[in-house]
Amino acid sequence: MLRDRLAKNRTILANERTLLAYVRTAIMLAVSGVTVLRILRGEQFYLFVGAGLILLAVFVGLYGAFRFQRLARRLSSYDTDKQPGDSSAA
């Protein structure tokens, strides 16, 4: 049904936008961590803050990729062309 295919396409696009938001956040965290390390070097506290921001950036990027893949797999298994009551195996 056309409505189902359009809904699936909207969901795919929303999933891609969400992934890009995770990537944008991860880049922002990594750049902030590098900035803290370069500008405020010398004190051990700032070393931990900068390294923590970079590690958080890696975690956010990996988590976003994991969520994207999980939803993409679920969407690929959803067949929008199959009609209700259709028992034929596609």
Number of helices: 2
Number of domains: 1
Please provide the ordered H/E string of secondary-structure elements: HH
How many DSSP E strands?
Answer: 0
Query: Which strand-content bin applies to the residues?
Result: under 5%
Structure description:
With 90 residues, the protein is mainly α. It has one domain (2-76). It has two helices and no strands. Helix 1 (2-39) runs antiparallel to helix 2. The protein is rod-shaped, with a radius of gyration of 21 Å.
Write a brief caption for the model.
By secondary structure, this protein is mainly alpha-helical. Helix content is 79%, strand content 0%.
Please render the helix and strand layout as text:
Layout lengths: L1 H38 L4 H33 L14
Question: Notable features of this structure?
Answer:
90 residues; 79% helix
